[in-house]
Amino acid sequence: MSAAPDHRPRMADLPLGERIAKAMPVLLVPILLVLGFLAIGNPSSWLTLTVSGLAMGMMIFIMASGLTLVFGLMDVINFGHGAFISVGAFVGISVVLALAEWAQAPSLLLNLGVVLLAVLAAMAITGMLGWAFERVIVKPVYGAHLKQILVTVGGLIVIEQLIHVIWGPDEIFFARPEMLKGAVTFWGAALEKYRLLAVAIGLVLFVVMRLVFRRTRIGLIVRAGVENGEMVEALGYRLRLVFIGVFIAGSALAGLGGVMWGLYQEVITAGMGEEMMILVFIVVIIGGLGSVEGAFIGALLVGLLQNYIAFLEPKLALISNIALLTAILMWRPQGMMPVVKAK
Questions:
Q1: What range does the record give for the signal peptide (predicted)?
Q2: pLDDT along the chain (343 residues), means of 10
Q3: Which domain holds residue 78?
């Protein structure tokens, strides 16, 4: 399947006003960085808060990217996505606790090895769970959004109760691997090592996803399926298999996000995924349904804004994300970078 020629006008051919409007979603992040710096005033405090916001945003992006793809390609509203976050956290942290000697060893290589094994185990289990979830719960309700909401919420509740059965009802507290504790000092700011790792992982994942979707055959099929599924099927591609693959990948990404969020908080609960779904849905909606790039920008805005507001005016932090959601939708009702489906 070769790429069709792109007849859309190039950015350089557009009038200046249209170019600015088209680029504005991308410009929102640097604008927010500058406004945050001016409002905070202290460079070291700003840098600490910025890294914290970027780390939070990257972890939310990892969880949200799978959900936005599932909705964009499959038109499925999956409220059960939070269950994969929780299961991924419990599986990954179980691996960390089982390899406690490696985790507490003063060796960066061993510590990163523990995190890698935890991530791989979480993604494998949540990927398989996602396959079963799609076959048993989601498949019978394709095209029926109200039923999707009901059955996926039911699936979320069932999986949370299974977590209680397997791991118990109590919170599990733990410590991060030894070399990921503490902070490094830069420009007078204390930057937590784990947050720097989270930023790096999020950036790498975003770049890999963009390369896959824009440079590979399967990525082209997925993008084409999001925009015009009927045409893709008419060309002879089995879009149903692509559906299953995307759902499994989205579930595995939720598991990855769960492990990272658990290590970030150093405590996990059965309901953590359900709690994170509020931020995940905010990111998916403001980014534009089906858009990975939109979810990435939205997640950065949510993470940065929440950290800046919590520092400047803590009482407003609780409503900062809702205010951001409201402002974005008033500006662009379909989100910042929505995928335009063929009619």
A1: none
A2: 48 61 81 92 90 94 88 80 94 93 88 94 95 88 84 92 92 89 81 91 91 81 71 75 86 94 92 91 88 91 93 86 91 78 49
A3: 57-331
What is the three-class DSSP state of 275?
Answer: helix
Domain assignment present for 315: yes
Helix (H, G, I), strand (E, B) or coil at 186: strand
Tell which residue, 43, 57, 121, 21, has the closest CA to residue 337: 21
Rounded to two decimals, the pTM is: 0.87
Rounded distance between C-alpha atoms, residue 315 and residue 42, angstroms: 21
Q: Give the CA distances from residue 204 to residues 82, 157, 201, 209, in Å, rounded to whole numbers and listed in that order.
A: 23, 33, 5, 9
CB 209 within 8 A of CB 292: yes
Beta bridge partners of 192: 183
C-alpha 54/C-alpha 198 separation (Å) is 9
C-alpha 259/C-alpha 125 separation (Å) is: 12
CA dihedral 249, 255, 260, 262 (to 10 degrees): 170
340 touches 227 (CB < 8 A): yes
Q: How far apart are CA 285 and CA 279, in angstroms?
A: 10
The CATH number linked to 132 is 1.10.3470
Report CA 84 to chain centroid distance, whole Å. 12
Structure tokens at 124: 């494998």
